[in-house]
C-alpha cells in the first residue's frame, strides 16, 4: 500500500483545527426574568410624539446575554429577556430628560413625518455627545484666538440667504408622484435641520453681541416662512424686546431684467431684520407698475434672478451712511474748521464748556445781504418759508433745507468748462461739528 505524504500546509491546518474550540451554544432564554418597558421613559406616554403609546414592534435582536425587542418608530425598548446564567447586576436605562430632548429636537426637524428607530438612535447619540462635550474642559492650543482678539473682529451685521428651492410652490408641482413626493420630503427634512442650525447660530451670536444686526432674506412665495425654526426665532427676539420686522423688495425696482434685456423680472424678496433704520428705508420697495415683466423668470432660480447690482449698491450705501453720515464727511472737508496747525493761535477758540455758557449777542451791521436768483428759485424759497412759518416747523432740518436753497442759488450756473471753470470758493457752515 502506498502512503500519502503530508504536506506542511496540511500539518498546519490540522494543528489549527485541534486548537480551535467549537463555538459555545447560547444558553436558553429565561422568561422568568423578563423586563418590560421602563414607565419613566417619555415615549411610554400617550401624549408623546411620535407613537402616542401605539408602538410598532420591530425585529427581535439578541446576543450572548439576552434578547430584546425595540419599537420600529421611536426605538423604545419594549421588552428584554436575559439568558439563563447571564449576570443581572446592571441594566441599561435611558435618561428620561435626554430622551425628551431628543424627541423635541427630532419633532421640530421631522414635522408630521414619523421617524425610524435608526433615526431616533442617531439623534439620541448626538444628544449624549453634546451633553458630554458641554462638561469637558477644553485644552485650547496656544495659537487659539483669545476673547480679546475675537471681540476686535466681531461682525456688526449678518446677512443670511439660505437655499429655498425645496420650499418653492413650483417644486411641489414638479414632485407629483408618490415616489417624487417622498424624495421631496427627504430633501425638506434636511432643509429643516439646516434652518434649526441657523436658528441656534443666530441665538448664540446675539447672546454674544446684543448690538448685532441680523438680516434674513427669502423669496416671498416660499412656503417655509411658517416653519418652526423661523417662528421660534421671531419669538426669541420678541421675548428680548428686539424688533424682527419684514421688508419687501422687488427686483425690478433695481433694474433686474432678463438675459435679453427686453423685459423686467419681478423677483419678490422678503427680508426680516432687526435693523429698524434698514426697515424704514427698504420696507416697501415695490414694483411701480409702469413696465412689463417676464413672468417665466419671476419665480425661477436662474442667474437672472440674483441680486441686481443696483440693489447691492443701495444696501451698501445705506450701511455706509450708518457708519459715517455724509454730512459729517462734508463738515470734515470744510476749509475753516478751527486751527489747523500748531502755529495758529488758539486763544480765540473757547473750549466747549465755555461755549455753552456764553451769552447770545447780536452784531449790528449795515452790510446788504444780496443774492441773485431766478424767478423759479425765488418762488421755491418763498413757498418753503411760508409753509414752515404756517406749520410752525422751525427744526434744524427744515431751516437747513431752506438755507441750502439759498446756497444752491448762489452757485455758478451753466455747463462746466475744462480750462477756466475752477472749483467753487463758497462754503456753507451751519452749527459746529466736533471730531
> What's the β-strand tally?
9
Q: So how many helices?
A: 13
The assigned structural class equals alpha+beta
Cross-sheet strand order for the largest sheet? 5-6-8-7-9
Strand and helix order: HEEEEHHHEHHEHEEHEHHHHH
As a percent range, the share of strand residues is 5-15%
How would a crystallographer describe the biggest sheet? 5 strands, mixed
- Kindly state the percentage of residues in helix: 25-40%
**Average pLDDT:** 79
For the record, give the distance between the C-alpha atoms at the N and C termini, rounded to a whole number. 117 Å
Shape, per Cα inertia axes: elongated
The unreliable regions are: 346-363, 365-369
- The rounded Rg comes to 38 Å
Written overview of the protein:
This protein is α+β, with helices and mostly antiparallel strands and 435 residues long. Among the domains are: 31-86 and 93-134, no CATH class; 157-327, no CATH class. The protein is 38% helix and 9% strand. It has 13 helices and 9 strands. The protein has helices at 8-19, 96-110, 117-134, 147-152, 169-174, 178-208, 228-239, 276-282, 309-323, 326-332, 352-357, 375-390, 396-409, and strands at 35-36, 61-62, 66-70, 77-82, 157-160, 213-219, 245-250, 268-273, 284-285. The strands form 2 sheets. Strands 5-6-8-7-9 form a 5-stranded mixed beta sheet, covered by helices on one side. Strands 1-4-3-2 form a 4-stranded antiparallel beta sheet, with no helix packed on it. Helix 2 (96-110) packs across helix 3, helix 6 packs parallel to helix 7 and helix 12 packs antiparallel against helix 13. The chain is elongated, with a radius of gyration of 38 Å.
